[in-house]
Amino acid sequence: MCGIAGWISFERDLRGERATLDAMTDSMAGRGPDERGTWVDRNAALGHRRLAIIDLPGGRQPMTAQTPRGAVAMVYSGETYNFVELREELRGRGHRFRTDSDTEVVLRGYLEWGEAVAERLNGMYGLAIWDAGKRELVLIRDRLGVKPLYYYPTRDGVLFGSEPKAILANPLAERVVDTAGIRELFAFVKTPGDGFWRGMHEVKPGTVVTVRPEGIRERVYWSLPTRPHTDDRETTVARVRELLEDVVRRQLVSDVPRCVLLSGGLDSSALTAIAAGHLAGDGEAVRSFSVDFTGRTDTFVPDSLRGNPDTPFAHEVAARVGADHQDILFDPAAHADPEVRAAVLRSRDMPASNGDMDASLYLLFREIRRHSTVALSGESADEVFAGYRWYFDPGVGQAETFPWLVRWAEYFGDDSQILAPAVRKLVDLETYRRDSYAGAVRGITRLDGESDVEWRQRKVCHLHLTRWVRVLLDRKDRTSMANGLEVRVPFCDHRLVEYVYNSPWSLKTFDGREKSLLRAATADLLPQSVLQRTKAPYPSTQDPRYAAALREGARELLASPTHPVFELISYEWLRNCVREQAPRITFASRSSLERALDIALWCDLYSPTLELS
Q1: Does residue 131 sit in the same domain as residue 259?
Q2: What is the pLDDT of residue 298?
Q3: For residues 109 and 87, is the Cβ–Cβ distance under 8 A?
Q4: Count of domains observed in the chain
Q5: In this structure, is residue 596 part of a structural domain?
Q6: Confidence label for 303 from pLDDT (cuts 50, 70 and 90)
Q7: Which among 184, 263, 265, 609 is least surrounded, fewest beta carbons within 10 Å?
Q8: Closest Cα to residue 108, out of 94, 122, 127?
Q9: What string of DSSP letters covers 548-562?
């Protein structure tokens, strides 16, 4: 896991631009605290920050190979979980290896198969290959979009990086956010390819981007397939378990300490139990970590999203599987720390945080990094196995919008209320969401003979796996990698995703509940309390001191009425919010306050030019 950056120019000599390449590379020092490397040729400059995970002495980058037509240089972020099998296949084809790293396997794979190496990789990755003989840059991103990769076309080439900050460190990149970027910020819809900053693009998941002197080309090498599912319930459950066992086994491979994030929910508990079984064969106990707030378990108050605290369930699972478990406790005051808020914003490069939940996630990863370098997470299981309550809301299947937006305001409030009236009218989120939804469902394939019920649920599942999950994956990657922690997501293995996606709704919910297949596949491993537990989101502090700190931050902001943030948000709205005398601020109001303060701090940190029209 690392951070990559680069600059391709077909008309200028980049050998004199090392200082700019260094700035681009070092902007992502958090992603790669172990080593730094650069490689510069006339038309290509590649930078790499390394988080050493596999083959610590041999995996240094940029990695190069000499061919009869010239040098091939690669920078690579992520992990390829089937690299052992690929290495053996390549050896059979005559390739020789100098290292034991998965990086070299990917590079030699490119030499053998060209950009078609993408179809052979199982893992999470964002990589760039400069082929000097072809005068061509190849950018490849993993199928589900676990690892980020951005690019910014220039007059004579392209800039690229694992994060926008690497691109923004180059003077050729303008720090401009236009109306489209603001829409993306408030729509809660991750549009494939959108890079938020004007002129910047994401390499879409499952896509190869090729840059040549004559232009840029995209090729999709994977998209979520629709195919008939013929296995019965027993076979399906057994196949899910088989896939989970294989996925976790592969993702435990590491030359550095690893652990599991354990919340006490079904997803993380299943991973912890399976990991414990694999590690027990080597005489090793699985290491697990949970997050909690001081006094939360004793003073917990159920709300519309969370019916019980996580900690007792996490402890029960840890005891059952023999985990070496540790609770990481936070004082809610830490979440209001301006330095923590700034660190989260820098990790995201945009004010898209989820307030205290992002802050606690960042702090959790920072603490875990003291003990482990790799962590397995249950992220994406809700999208794969249909775990959200809105999957079962009759109104969601009928609504002509993204499923998570149907009840969004009811649970989380409407953050767009903070926008100045003229800006709100300009961005027109309702139309934007409607058009985005129409484009998203247009690409979904219906099976011949599929019932209306199954078709509705197929659309719901597809939208979660191609739009919503990317919001969550981006959040987890940025906050973890800012701390030099590699978080792996076994539920994003494309084999598992494809298999469960094509399982009919009647199988996904055969016991009348969410995540029926996952529950059945791991029933022998987990306590009944966890198997029967209702899903709860990532924990959020209930301490009133946190809300009070937000109000105080808003008062300070109101004291600067010329602050650039008021080009976007409503000064009057913020003033009224601070004047509220309610004894306890609602979660929705708190969320809006968090968003307003984040945007203000983002303006301070990034000095963006806003061009709204």
Answers
A1: no
A2: 61
A3: no
A4: 2
A5: no
A6: low
A7: 609
A8: 94
A9: HHHHHHHHHHHT-TT
Cβ neighbourhood burial of 153 (10 Å; 0-12, 13-18, 19+): middle
What CATH number is attached to the domain comprising 473? 3.40.50.620
CA gap 160, 7 in Å, rounded:
6
Residue 102 pLDDT = 96
End-to-end CA distance of the chain, in Å? 39
Order of all β-strands in the sheet with 2-9? 35-40, 44-50, 2-9, 157-161, 150-154, 201-202
DSSP 53: -
Among 167, 145, 139, 123, which residue's Cα sits nearest to residue 471?
A: 145
Q: Is 435 exposed, middle or buried (0-12, 13-18, 19+ CB in 10 A)?
A: exposed
Burial of 94 (0-12, 13-18, 19+ CB in 10 A): exposed
Which CA distances in Å does 11 have to 171, 213, 578, 581? 17, 9, 55, 62
d(CA 210, CA 192): 17
Confidence of residue 499 (pLDDT cuts 50, 70, 90): very high
Angstrom CA distances, 546 to 154, 343, 382, 597, stand at: 44, 18, 29, 13
Q: What pLDDT sits at residue 300?
A: 63
Return the closest-CA partner of residue 55 out of 253, 281, 287, 285: 253
Residues 24/166, Cβ–Cβ less than 8 Å: yes
Task: Answer yes or no: do 263 and 124 share one domain.
Answer: no
Alpha-carbon distances, residue 368 vs 66, 268, 323, 485, 502 (angstroms): 40, 16, 15, 8, 36
CA atoms lying within 13 Å on the CB side of residue 306: 20
What CATH number does the domain containing 99 carry? 3.60.20.10
Residue 581 confidence (pLDDT) above 60: no
Which is catalytic among the residues 2, 259, 461, 492? 2
Instruction: For 377-411, write each residue's pLDDT tens digit.
Output: 999 999 999 999 889 888 887 888 999 998 877 76
pLDDT-derived band at 296, boundaries 50, 70, 90: low
What is the spatial order of strands in the sheet that 486-488 belongs to?
324-330, 287-293, 258-261, 374-376, 486-488
Instruction: Give strand ranges (E) for 443-598.
Output: 486-488
Q: What is the pLDDT of residues 438-471, one digit of tens each?
A: 999 998 999 999 999 999 999 999 999 999 999 9
In a domain, 542, yes or no: no
Concerning whether 603 is annotated as a catalytic residue, the answer is no
Give pLDDT, residue 545.
Answer: 82
What pLDDT, on the 0 to 100 scale, is given for residue 314?
Answer: 95
Provide CB contacts within 8 A for 118, sequence distance 6+.
140, 208, 221, 222
Q: Examine the domain organization and report whether 177 and 277 are in the same domain.
A: no
Asked if residue 259 and residue 208 are part of one domain, the reply reads no
- The b-or-e profile of 566-603 (16+ CB within 10 A means b, else e) is bebbbeebbeebbeeeeeebebbbbbbbbbbbbbbbbb
Pairwise CA distance, residues 472 & 474, whole Å: 5
DSSP string, 129-187: EEETTTTEEEEEE-SS--S--EEEEETTEEEEESSHHHHHTSTTS--EEEHHHHHHHHH
Q: Is the pLDDT of residue 582 over 60?
A: no
Can you spell out the DSSP letters for 284-329? -PPEEEEEEETTHHHH----SS-SS-SHHHHHHHHHHHT-EEEEEE
